[in-house]
Amino acid sequence: MRAIPKNIRRQVDQTVEAIQSSLLQRSASELENIIGAPAATSASSSERPSSKKKQKPSVACNNFLEHDGIRPCDSELSVGTKIKRECLKKYPRYKTLDDQGKALVALGANSILDLTNPNSAHQELFSSQEWKDLSHQFRPMFENNTALLEENNSSLREIEK
């Protein structure tokens, strides 16, 4: 397998970081509405919506249900519910989380499961058989993205503008 050139790896890392940041910003208000915690990305408290009565974070986390219908190994909870609940538990501590914790919150806030990283923080949310089933059901479309990135490098630059 060919090594990924450093400049392409750097571009990918920067793009992933930008996407994670964008996902977190978009979902901060939604999370605040669910658990009543201040949005980690808000500039001031005046930006936060004053709305209905807030639940305690632990109650909101345990009651939250996604309706994605993906239940590996006939799990009681759906994939979306598991990752969103974990996101809601970690969100109030977002600024103190390590990179994997922040990725889990950013992706989980949008009900995105990361199957691309063999050491994904999401893996701990599932039994080994559930993870194996998910990984098999949602296999990558491309085994080696380096060639794809090289072919589309100019297009990616245009998109990033």
Structure keywords:
mainly alpha; 161 residues; 7 helices
Helix/strand layout:
Blueprint: H1 6-35, H2 57-63, H3 79-90, H4 99-108, H5 128-137, H6 145-151, H7 153-160
Helix pairs in contact: 1-4, 2-3, 3-4
Commentary on this structure:
By secondary structure, this protein is mainly alpha-helical. It has a domain at 29-37 and 55-141. Helix content is 52%, strand content 0%. The protein contains seven helices and no strands. α1 (6-35) crosses α4 (99-108). The model is unreliable at 37-55 (pLDDT under 50).
User: Which secondary-structure class do the elements indicate?
Assistant: mainly alpha
Mean pLDDT: 74
Tell me the radius of gyration.
Answer: 18 Å
Please outline the major beta sheet: none
Assembly annotation: single chain
As a percent range, the share of helical residues equals 40-55%
**Uncertain parts:** 37-55
Order of helices and strands: HHHHHHH
What is the β-strand count? Answer: 0
Distance between the termini: 31 Å
The portion of residues forming beta strands comes to under 5%
- What is the overall silhouette? globular
Count of runs of 4 or more consecutive helical residues: 7
